[in-house]
Predict the 3D structure of the following.
Amino acid sequence: MKPYSLRRRLLLWLLLATALLGLVALLDTWREALRTAQSVSDRVLVGSALAIAERVTVDQFGGLEVDIPFSSLEMLTSTAQDKVFYRVDGPVGSFLTGYPDLAVTADTPGGIAFTDGTYRSVDIRSATLTREVSTGARSIPFSVTVAESTRARAALARAILVRSALRLGLLILGVAVIVWVAVTVALRPLERLGEAIAERSPGDLRPVTADTPEEVEALVNAINSFMARLGTALDGLRNFTGNASHQLRTPLAVVRTQLALLDRSAAPGPVTDASAKARTALERAERVLAQLLVLARVDASSGAAVLAPVDVVAVAKGVTAELVPAALQNDIDLGFEGAGTALATADKVLLAELLNNLLTNAITYAGHGAIVTVRVTNTPVTVEVEDNGPGLTAAQMDQARQTRHGIARPLPSLHKGAATGMGLGLAIAAEISALFGATISFDQARSGSGLLVRITFPT
Ligand SMILES: Nc1ncnc2c1ncn2[C@@H]1O[C@H](COP(=O)(O)OP(=O)(O)OP(=O)(O)O)[C@@H](O)[C@H]1O
Ligand SMILES: [Mg+2]
């Protein structure tokens, strides 16, 4: 589970808050329901007690007499399960009629008092009404107690509670759905921002201008200032590579001249042997510098592309011709296939550099007697360099394919100690192809062994 899902957090907090508030509301509803049920049934209790009190009369012996109107008790039994009890008492606790073991609430002369209790192990609510009946000469006090079991009341309150709880559950469910949808909608600008950044080319460090809500502005500003700093750092690095390579050329040229002088003045022997080795090392260093300069140039052009239609046939033919002497030296059969013109958007110098790298590789690594072919075709414009040497292993091919624009990842050279072998050639080829918007592919040669590199230009 991802710890920082905004959606999950919002859901959790809102649901928790809703559930808490809901519980409080539920408690309140429960209390209110109880109170309402009680006040309704209390009123009925009072009505019944009054109805009975009205039937209390003085008999001919001056005692009290009561004729219970059962209709007044009937109106109490709101449900079949509820039971009704009553008793009527004369002055000073003289029991007149009803249930003698029913408790009488403490006297409140002339008024009515309520209590909750149990009677015959049933929860009851009882009301005791105190009244007086007049004989003309004196008044005789009496009390009427009416009690009703509370099942109906409790059932009513429970029903109200259950309905409220159901409503609360639905509310929480509704909140969850709303939050889910709302978060999705609210987070869309962030997604758009992410897409806007993701679909950029790696070299594109311009400020992000996507339409974003205020809350995200700080983030966008941070990204933009980061991009600006990154751009400055990259520029610095580019300039450094370019400048360093350039600066190193002059001293290397001086070393080369000095070596030539040394060769001329020294007799063949240990000294000339040493100078020959030094020259080999010098050539390697110069090649690396040249490659680094090309990389710096590719980097510099990737900002403001200065591409124009180039005849790929002409450039490829030129590079092939240039490398014929090297091929002859390595006993390589170097051929060219392609006629007419094949126009593609590119840069002449960089395209030549790209092909030069591929051809040099083929000439260097394909082995003596190998056949190397440069092939240019039209619609779409492609240029292939194919050899019948050992080729690349699957892993090496994968690595070559993964060399992406912006990340020149040199291939670890297999041929340690070979003439070149700095591992920049294929990375440069990939970089330049990406700059042209062309795709570069590495495959096994058609003959079965050997490497086939194909650059396909966009139509
Ligand atoms: N046509 C090929 N046949 C066989 N192996 C190759 C071929 N092309 C490249 N390789 C292998 O891939 C490695 C990387 O090639 P890459 O051109 O990137 O660097 P490099 O030739 O070693 O050095 P650089 O080109 O910078 O002078 C080479 O060292 C070689 O082992
Ligand atoms: Mg190479």
User: Anything to note?
Assistant: The first strand starts at residue 56 and ends at 58. Residues 199-304 form a domain with the Helix Hairpins fold (CATH 1.10.287). The pocket of adenosine-5'-triphosphate (ligand 1) is lined by residues 287, 291, 357, 361-362, 365-366, 387, 389-392, 396, 411, 413-415, 420-427, 451 (CB under 6 Å).
